[in-house]
Write a structure and sequence with these properties.
The complex is a heterodimer of chains A (339) and B (327). By secondary structure, chain A is of the alpha/beta class. Chain A has twelve helices and seven strands. In chain A, strands 1-2-3-7-6 form a five-stranded parallel β-sheet, sandwiched between helices. A two-stranded antiparallel ribbon of chain A has the order 4-5. In chain A, helix 9 links the parallel strand 6 and strand 7. Chain B has two domains: 181 residues, 3-Layer(aba) Sandwich (Rossmann fold); 129 residues, Rossmann fold (3-Layer(aba) Sandwich), CATH 3.40.50. Chain B has twelve helices and 14 strands. Classes of the chains: A alpha/beta (339), B alpha/beta (327).
Chain lengths: 339, 327
């Protein structure tokens, strides 16, 4: 574990963490970005047919997942949740085998499109493509946690576009009525594919809707990793204490097109895209940690080397993994007899 | 052995299963203090309390979607959709989510849950309290669909559905709730999913039916017996997975097949039975596979004359049997 010498610990202490925690958070943000960038290279090189990206969301994702307890709490993620899934325990190999749709892909064994992560081992619910549906699953998980008295918290995340789905309304209402241990995270990147937020939501913030359910709604700058962490920590504590759900809206940016099949310059100007780069949490967080003396040149170089090695390893691994055997394609429509 | 009504068999089974397994919860609209609009959950709330018998808001998609999540996290939800006609807001959760969770996660996740819903016409329920919705769901791999016709089967099949590891849609014909009685043993028996029953042995025509139509088929079989026609009635009981062998064995014996269902004829569940019989028992057929089903209007009209016009009846089935017998 990395120890820094020039930091006085003030920054970490301000959010109740250690310097080592901050370096670990940075590692996950940077790892998610590096994996994501590798996915685009592999797509452009013709190795994988499709990419859906989390670039611009990573800071908020790592920070918001951080207060949740691995192998205990639950997350119902969405297709941009690469950093969320890494933070909750999936490995770079897990992420890249999903891109290659290999037999060993733990999310789906190559059955789903890339980006549809999931892992029972890590309490990450399998992602589907109809958006917003996963909120109800997280609410049901929270309901079971309350009934079974497990002390678990369930979190789900989605974009602001998905937040308009009827399932979101139905689920928030129910979770609020029963004060379920539930955290709803909207990663608002300003676009639902091509449609800007102003044409999706009439209020300035999605979080403004929270009052209609009688729950707190919090807006947080997704560029500010530690602010996201503080907000999530409060929401998780509130949920665990039995005080009910919280709606967190993290204002993030989408640094890439919607997917590898989208051309975002058709609906976003060059000026806008250039300006949005300033809202990238990765360099902002790096600078913040450098300024506080938490991320020394030496530590940063080591983290970067570790990440490069992990991404290369995951790529090499996924490249050599076999495709699923069509003879297995009829399996698991239903449970198979175990006796 | 005590004789029970169809709905009593269902309610008592819920009670017995909830006593046996504390992970079972019941949720739906008015299922709590009121005990459901048909009283299928009457008394459950008093015995099991707020945590296990949950009155939901009017949110069918939430009822199904939250049940999926609860199943993922260790419970066995038995949810009630107040009328099958109102299940469509939850169609996405059933078809895109519950049905595919196991397949898409490569067996990482399963969804053990039951969706109970009253269906069917003949009760002056009109367009939105009469529908037969089974064909929408029997089409979907990953779902199981059960339609019992007797109190005995209702108990045994509901037990099997609750104990199953996958999502089961359990449709109950509402006209049968209090009009059908039968003996229900107090034992812990199970009627396995995927097993049809020959409810009336015969030699000349096979009639395949389920739910209320399984009763009407028996009545029709009695009527045509006076004409010297010997009918074998197969009650499929589980629509998916279908017990093909029992259906095909009967048709191979009789050489003729009439399929009866209450839903609209075009694309209804009986069309699949007809197709299977045509594909797999063609060499044994002495006449066209024939269907008696509801007319192709959007739903059952209210006025009683119009409703009678819509509904398949024992007379209509008997007429079709006579015609096929004469072929």
């Amino acid at each position: 574990m990395t120890e820094t010498r020039s930091s006085d610990g003030t920054l970490a202490a301000s959010v109740g963490l250690s310097d080592a925690d901050l370096v670990e958070m940075y590692r996950y943000v940077a790892l998610a970005r590096a994996l994501d960038e590798r996915m685009w290279i592999l797509n452009r090189a013709g190795r994988i047919p499709f990419v859906i990206s989390g670039q611009g969301h990573e800071g908020a994702q790592v920070a918001i997942a951080w207060p949740l307890q691995r192998h205990h709490d639950w997350i119902a993620p969405f297709y941009r949740s690469i950093a969320t899934c890494l933070t909750f325990g999936m490995s770079p190999r897990d992420i890249l085998t999903a891109q290659y749709a290999t037999a060993s892909d733990p999310s789906s064994g190559g059955r789903q499109m890339p980006g549809h992560y999931g892992s029972h081992e890590h309490n990450l619910v399998s992602v589907s493509s109809p958006v917003g549906t996963q909120l109800l699953h997280a609410v049901g998980i929270a309901l079971a946690a309350k009934i079974r008295k497990t002390g678990q918290v369930a979190m789900t995340s989605m974009g602001e576009g998905s937040s308009n789905q009827g399932d979101v309304h139905e689920g928030l209402n129910f979770a609020a009525i029963h004060k379920l241990p539930f955290v709803f995270v909207v990663e608002n990147n300003g676009y639902a594919i091509s449609v800007p937020a102003a044409k999706q939501v009439a209020t300035p913030n999605v979080a403004d809707r929270a009052s209609g359910y009688g729950i707190p709604g919090v807006v947080v700058d997704g560029t500010d990793v530690l602010a996201c962490y503080a907000v999530a920590k409060a929401a998780v504590e509130r949920a665990r204490a039995g005080d009910g759900p919280t709606l967190i809206e993290a204002k993030v940016t989408r640094l890439t097109a919607h997917s590898s099949d989208d051309q975002q310059t058709k609906y976003r100007s060059e000026e806008e895209l250039a300006a949005e780069k300033a809202r990238d949490a990765l360099p902002v967080f790096r600078r913040q940690l450098q300024d506080a003396g938490v991320l020394t040149d030496e530590v940063e170089a080591q983290v970067a080397a570790d990440i490069t090695a992990a991404v290369d390893d995951a790529t090499d691994y996924a490249e050599t993994q076999p495709d699923p055997d069509p003879a297995t394609a009829m399996r698991y429509v239903y449970a198979e007899d175990v006796d | 052995m005590p004789a029970r009504t169809f709905i009593d068999a269902i309610r008592d089974t819920l009670v017995l299963e909830m006593r046996r397994d504390e992970t079972i919860i019941v949720l739906g609209e008015d299922v709590g203090k009121k005990g459901g609009v048909f009283l299928a959950t009457d008394g459950l709330w008093a015995e099991f309390g707020d945590d296990r018998v949950i009155d939901t808001p009017l949110t069918e998609s939430m009822i199904i979607g939250a049940s999926i999540g609860a199943a993922v996290n260790g419970l066995r939800p038995v949810c009630e959709i107040q009328f099958a006609d109102f299940i469509f807001p939850a169609f996405n959760q059933l078809v895109s989510e519950a049905a595919r969770m196991r397949y898409r996660s490569n067996n990482g996740y399963g969804v053990p849950m039951v969706v109970r819903a009253p269906y069917g016409g003949g009760v002056h329920g009109a367009l939105y309290h009469s529908q037969s919705v089974e064909a929408f769901f029997t089409h979907v791999p990953g779902l199981k669909v059960v339609i019992p016709s007797t109190p005995y089967d209702a108990r045994g099949l509901l037990r099997a559905s609750i104990r199953d590891e996958d999502p089961v849609l359990f449709f109950e014909h509402k006209k049968m709730y209090r009009s059908v009685r039968g003996e229900v043993p107090d034992t812990d028996y199970v009627v396995p999913l995927g097993k049809a029953a020959v409810t009336h042995p015969g030699s000349q025509i096979t009639v395949v039916a389920y739910g209320l139509m399984a009763h009407y088929a028996l009545e029709a079989a009695d009527r045509v017996a006076d004409d010297g026609i010997s009918v074998e009635v197969v009650d499929v009981r589980t629509l998916r997975p279908l017990d093909r062998e029992t259906v095909l064995d009967s048709v191979r014996k009789t050489g003729k097949c009439l399929v009866v269902y209450e839903d609209n004829k075009f694309g209804g569940y009986g069309a699949e039975i007809a197709a299977i019989v045509a594909e797999e028992a063609f060499d044994y057929l002495d006449g066209p596979v024939t269907r008696v089903a509801g007319p192709d209007v959007p739903a059952v009209p209210y006025n009683h004359v119009l409703e009678d016009w819509f509904m398949v009846s024992p007379e209509k089935i008997a007429d079709a049997i006579r015609k096929l017998a004469a072929y």
